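Fold Annotation — chain and its backbone
Next Lines — sequence and tokenised fold

***
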Amino acid sequence: MAFSPKNRKGTISGIVFVALVAASATWIAGLGPVKALGLSPLVVGIVIGIFYANTLHNRFPPAWETGITFSAKKILRFAIVFYGFRITFQQIAHVGLEGFLVSLTMLVSTFILGSWLGIKRFGLDRDTAMLTASGASVCGAAAVLATEPVLKAEEYKAAIAVSMVVLFGTVSMFLYPVLYAAIFQHAHGFLHLSPEQYGIYVGGTVHEVAQVVAAAGINGPGTEMANNAVIVKMTRVLLIAPMLILLGLYLSRKAAREGGAGAEVKLVIPWFAVYFLGMAAFNSFDLLPHRVVGTINAVDTFLLTMAMSALGMGTRFAKFKGVGLAPLYTALGMYLWLVIGGFVVVKVITGIF
């Protein structure tokens, strides 16, 4: 137990250490050049954590490991629950049925495609394939973090998935504005996207929230284009709760089938995802002052940064041997679908509604 009399001191020391790393990551992410790249404190935190794991790990007390593990597991679940304060059902209603359908279609299709590509085509293990798929289909690094405890995956597998999010999400921040300025804005017929459609397209297909803001901010913040992008993106974030619940049910039934008729399989329900949905519902009533919600979100970002930093600390490069380029190929396949297939989905759904 992390807080047993034997482990309590080491656990607390480990948590404090992770918090200091997260504070450093937050400071670095706020620096001009890093901020311009759109790198969130979560991404900076995992980079620092991986550096620690592969260079300085042996110079720190082994007793701290319980605190690092506690941060990567328990603090993570707590942070995901309070991530619900970033969303309201009113925001989702604002973009209407078309925005919701684009989010739902891209999430389901991308997750299924990524899992199939990773496992069936490129020989990835189930956990790495599904973690990579969740990062691309839902909301980047936060989705990887939320999916990891459902799969009970090892830390390095989540780190692989996050690295794919960083790579292709960064490409999106530059590619999407170029496509809009060079093609979508001036084209006629099927290739044309209105500012509102472009916002839905970005929100429904780009990985991270910060990357969505960057890709949709062509005409500045607060425009209908930018607002549509963020709201559609947050709809995808909200859908992580039912996705994780369905994933838990699928894994339980699959384990039951593979275990034989007499096998007892515990149903995996990620309750933190249910609580996340409850927080979003509570936030929809607007009962708390905006200043308080802003503070909650700031603290939550820091807790997520702690979890990501701790995840990086459990990532040893030696574990990557044998994985090869399969995660890259899988992520690339999903990215092509997001860019090309997502465009077609947006045109079809917005054309219908």
